[in-house]
Design goal:
The structure is a single chain. With 285 residues, the protein is an alpha+beta fold. The protein has 3 domains: 2-88, 3-Layer(aba) Sandwich (Rossmann fold); 108-162, Dna Ligase, domain 1 (2-Layer Sandwich), CATH 3.30.1490; 166-244, ATP-grasp fold, B domain (D-amino Acid Aminotransferase, Chain A, domain 1, 2-Layer Sandwich). It has helices at 17-28, 62-72, 82-89, 91-100, 118-123, 203-216, 250-261, and strands spanning 2-7, 32-37, 54-57, 78-79, 108-111, 126-130, 140-142, 158-162, 170-176, 179-185, 197-199, 220-228, 231-239. The strands form 3 sheets. It has a 5-stranded antiparallel beta sheet. It has a 4-stranded parallel beta sheet with strand order 2-1-3-4, with helices on both faces. The protein has a 4-stranded antiparallel beta sheet with strand order 5-8-6-7, with helices on one face. Helix 2 runs antiparallel to helix 3. The radius of gyration is 19 Å and the shape is globular.
Length: 285
């Protein structure tokens, strides 16, 4: 069987040790493994066609997602499913799905005008972030309304989450099927490049992690958790993360990809669930 991995440019530009091991394990099992970075190729968009048995979406870029979408419309098999990746990448969609599934998430607001957040910022500190962002880019802490003046105006949607005061470290949960791992590390704009410190996963965190996958139809994914005064809160979710700091994870990832490739594992984007709370209509001020 032929597998194709859609990869992202790495910072620094070195191959992921986990992926190197995964590729080697899959090749030993007689899979043909090909890989590429969408931004480093030229393809004729109207002639994109299926050439592999399974495509593994490792990149979060708009071009990779678009090419994966072109393949998906032709019936290509993707891991994770294209619809799941699109919903996960869009933090507005993901936050609503997670809350509806009972996952603890911060209160989240969206707007197109930073000034409209002043009233909310007067009530609670906010984290303002790109609604399509990843790797911690473009995140700003707003402690008071005047801090909004320091932010550059955005052309697109603006997303703001209630700031959750944690314990000085992020808990990053990594999931492979029904296996859940955790590492701890201080948050910084470059923390995604640094391995964390492995730690135990208690039953609450495991349940939260698996519920995230169920809500969005994911099998390989990661989430960032802040441990606030009210308990753990999921502040970010992404598909096929780097699994940095997770010991001996490559064989589990290779096993999962193999099972998916041969049809022993399946995933699909679940229908949206209804939240057990009073909703907020769009347009209410």
């Amino acid at each position: 069987m032929k597998l194709y991995f859609l990869l992202v440019r790495r910072i620094p530009p070195e191959p992921s040790p986990v992926l190197v091991d995964v590729f080697e394990l899959l090749r030993r099992r007689r899979f043909r493994v090909d890989a590429g970075i969408a931004e480093e190729t030229v393809v004729q968009a109207d002639r994109v066609q299926i050439t592999h048995d399974l495509y593994v979406l490792k990149s979060h870029t708009e071009l990779s997602l678009s090419l994966a979408g072109a393949l998906d419309t032709q019936g290509a098999r993707l891991l994770n499913p294209h619809a799941s990746c699109i919903a996960t990448q869009n933090k507005i969609v993901a936050s609503r799905r997670l809350r509806a599934a009972g996952v603890p998430v911060p209160r989240t607001w969206v707007t197109g005008d930073l000034d409209l957040l002043r009233r909310i910022a007067a009530e609670t500190p906010l984290i303002v972030k790109p609604y399509l962002g990843h790797r911690g880019a473009g995140i700003h802490l707003v402690r008071k309304p005047s801090d909004l003046r320091d932010l550059s105006p955005e052309d697109g949607p603006i997303m703001a989450q209630e700031y959750v005061v944690g314990q000085g470290e992020d808990v990053k949960l990594y999931v492979v099927g029904d296996n859940v791992f955790a590492v701890r590390k201080p948050f910084s704009p470059t923390s995604f490049t640094v391995p964390g410190r492995p730690c135990a996963v208690d039953s609450d965190l495991r349940a939260i992690a698996l519920r995230c996958g169920e809500a969005l139809g994911l099998g390989l994914y990661g989430l960032d958790v802040m441990e606030g005064a009210g308990g753990p809160v999921v502040v970010d979710l992404n598909y096929f993360p780097g699994y940095k700091g997770v010991p001996d994870v490559a064989p589990l990832i290779a096993d999962y990809i193999e099972r998916f490739a041969v049809g022993e594992e399946t995933l699909e984007m679940p229908p949206p669930s209804l939240a057990d709370e009073v909703g907020e209509p769009i347009g209410r001020e």
